[in-house]
């Protein structure tokens, strides 16, 4: 494979599974050193082993909850000390979180989803930006979703959809703020992708009481028979992380096989 990331270091959050995992494998094959940020140790250790088979010493698994400020600050510090710098941040960790009718969601349900998906994204930028500024260059990619931006028919997903819309606004603000430092910020919105994300869904008991007002062909994609693959998103994210996209910032790119056009 081409070596677009030779000598570069990337932080990937949610690297233990799905889209983050596929992106870590792709970028390692193309020469990157990668800090794998995730909560789930065993899965992340597997990815670390796989990457070290691709190139010895290129991976560092870091056990961190992206929504925890102290842990995130320490994890970024550890990464930069270990690899000697930072060039790419993929703020990708996310959960479906609690789903249910709005009046049945507890404040804890609501805040947990916001903490992981929104605050986790904020912290992923907050602690990494100084390191890219000192290099005079950087690329940040954020994983949003079509859910909350292009389609609104996942009933019960109001906290999730809110965070996914918020990430797009945050990415655009960050792109403007960081342009003069040559740090690019882009946001990708996948449609349905085959990953473990459903394990992060916490339905409330009252879910059955949601009245679904219209029939919606959830997860259908005109371009494919089923959902997309994590590798599809990894290809896009790698392009945005690389110098091939050097004039692209503040862009919101949908990758959904036309699902959101249905
Ligand atoms: P996944 O569950 O397979 O992987 C997500 C990873 O993030 C997991 O390994 C999980 O342990 C980790 N994670 C969750 N909370 C964390 C936290 N607080 N701190 C650190 N790590 C944490 O799911 P995925 O589909 O690969 O999800 C990646 C991103 O893609 C998410 O932001 C999700 O919202 C987004 N997305 C997914 C789909 C889809 O259909 N799979 C569609 C659109 C957007």
Automatic annotation (TrEMBL):
Similarity comment: family membership: Belongs to the short-chain dehydrogenases/reductases (SDR) family.
Coiled-coil annotated residue ranges, if any: none
UniProt keyword terms in alphabetical order: Oxidoreductase
InterPro entries in alphabetical order: NAD(P)-bd_dom_sf (IPR036291), SDR_fam (IPR002347)
Protein name as catalogued: SDR family oxidoreductase
Entries under Gene3D superfamilies matching the protein: NAD(P)-binding Rossmann-like Domain
Species for this entry: Paenibacillus apii
Gene Ontology annotations of biological process type: bile acid metabolic process
Keyword Oxidoreductase belongs to the record: yes
GO molecular function, one term: oxidoreductase activity
């Amino acid at each position: 494979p081409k070596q677009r990331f030779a000598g570069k270091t990337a932080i990937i959050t949610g690297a233990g599974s799905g889209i983050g995992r596929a992106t870590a494998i792709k970028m390692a094959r193309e020469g990157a050193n990668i800090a794998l940020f995730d909560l789930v140790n065993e899965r992340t250790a597997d990815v670390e082993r796989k990457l070290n088979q691709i190139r010895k010493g290129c991976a560092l698994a870091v056990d961190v909850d992206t929504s925890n400020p102290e842990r995130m600050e320490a994890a970024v510090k550890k990464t930069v000390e270990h690899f000697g710098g930072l060039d790419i941040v993929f703020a990708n960790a996310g959960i479906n979180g609690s789903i249910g009718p709005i009046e049945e969601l507890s404040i804890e349900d609501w805040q947990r989803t916001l903490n992981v998906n929104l605050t986790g994204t904020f912290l992923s930028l907050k602690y990494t930006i100084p390191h890219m500024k000192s290099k005079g260059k950087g690329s940040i990619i954020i994983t949003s979703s079509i859910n909350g931006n292009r389609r609104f028919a996942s009933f019960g997903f109001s906290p999730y959809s809110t965070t996914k819309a918020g990430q797009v606004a945050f990415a655009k603000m960050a792109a403007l703020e960081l342009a003069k430092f040559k740090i690019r910020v882009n946001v990708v919105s996948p449609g349905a992708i085959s990953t473990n994300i459903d394990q992060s869904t916490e339905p409330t008991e009252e879910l059955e009481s949601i009245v679904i007002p219209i029939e919606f062909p959830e997860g259908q994609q005109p371009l494919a028979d089923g959902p997309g693959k994590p590798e599809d998103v990894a290809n896009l994210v790698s392009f945005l992380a690389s110098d091939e996209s050097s004039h692209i910032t503040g862009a919101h790119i949908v990758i959904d096989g036309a699902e959101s056009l249905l």
